[in-house]
Specification:
eight-stranded mixed sheet, 13 strands, elongated, 2 domains, Rossmann fold
Length: 319
């Protein structure tokens, strides 16, 4: 069968190997695929792998040989799952491969928000250390996490790992999910969304992008947060209304925001967050450790092998 990887550069920029695919068929790997080229590149494909390239009804109408589609990661909002189900096309994702990396990155962002290491470093490199009487650094942010409340919106594998780290730092951890808004479990207290927003010093997003969460973090959402709270997003960029978040930063409603994802990536020059106060933005890098990407490729192969033998991937999204 013909196997096409539409946008493989993010997963494998050259430090890993796609060779395992060759045992299953004829492989073509593209670093990136513009939308106008997707149909042409998938024309004869039986198996298609995508990171962000859209798999739409219109594409499936043109590419009738496709029987297997896999996300090159956990998120699959770029795939028209309902249309694939109608057509009997198997769809898989790769869950769990980056939980350790994303949770570590999330906590690194949190530490960066409350502890301005770059600011302290600049004091030394600019020769200001000896010029500060009594070694006081009131202008450089340094806040203790101990005693703060961390609110997790979504508490799957990544959220639970972040909670473990937060507990180690002496933080109180609360969470809300689509199915759980009360109770206590493993050091986490579950609350409703509104309760969580009103109590959290830090809100961290770990929920999927869907119709309920798209644009969820808007003026109304932010108004329910504590004044001077922090916000972290390592989930999906479109969960935020970016203009509303920028306004909240510039008005000091929010003390700081750290984002690894944006609604449109890479960042456009007119994105209001680029010039907002106290806003950390990283280039969707939380999942990209080499250990995580190796696990991703291993799970990709396991899914494809299962499909070739049974017609169903191990991590099938078609229920």
């Amino acid at each position: 069968m013909k196997i096409v990887v539409l946008d493989g550069f993010a997963v494998n920029p050259g430090d890993l190997s796609w060779d395992f695919f060759n045992k299953y068929g004829e492989l073509t790997v593209y670093d990136k695929t513009q939308s106008e080229l997707t149909a042409e590149r998938c024309a004869d494909a039986v198996a298609v792998f995508t990171n962000r390239a859209e798999i739409s009804k219109e594409l499936l109408d043109k590419c009738l040989r496709i029987h297997y589609i896999s996300a090159l990661g956990t998120g699959y909002d770029m795939i028209d799952l309902a249309e694939c189900k109608k057509r009997g096309i198997e769809v898989c994702n790769v869950p769990g491969y980056s939980s350790a990396s994303v949770s570590q990155f999330t906590f690194a962002l949190l530490l960066n928000l409350v502890t301005d290491i770059n600011g302290f470093t600049k004091i030394v490199k600019d020769g200001l250390w000896t010029g500060i009487p009594g070694f006081h650094y009131e202008t450089t942010r340094f806040m203790e996490l101990s005693g703060m409340t961390l609110g997790l919106i979504g508490c799957g594998a990544i959220g639970k790992r972040v909670a473990e780290m937060a507990n180690t730092f002496g933080m109180k951890v609360i969470a809300t999910t689509s199915s759980k808004t009360s109770g206590n479990e493993n050091g986490i207290t579950y609350l409703s969304l509104n309760e969580l927003l009103g109590r959290s010093d830090v809100v961290s997003l770990h929920c999927p992008l869907n119709e309920k969460t798209r644009g969820m973090v808007d003026k109304s959402f932010i108004s329910k947060m504590k004044d001077g709270a922090f916000l972290i997003n390592t989930a999906r960029g479109a969960i935020l209304n970016e203009s509303d978040v920028a306004e909240a930063l510039n008005s000091d409603k929010l003390c700081g925001v750290a984002l690894d994802v944006l609604a449109n990536e890479p960042a456009m020059a007119d994105n209001p967050l680029l010039n907002a106060k106290n806003c950390i933005i990283t280039p969707h890098a939380a999942w990209t450790s080499i250990a995580a990407r190796k696990r991703l490729l291993t799970i990709l192969e396991a899914n494809l092998e299962s499909f070739t033998k049974t017609g169903k991937g191990i991590n099938s999204l078609i229920k």
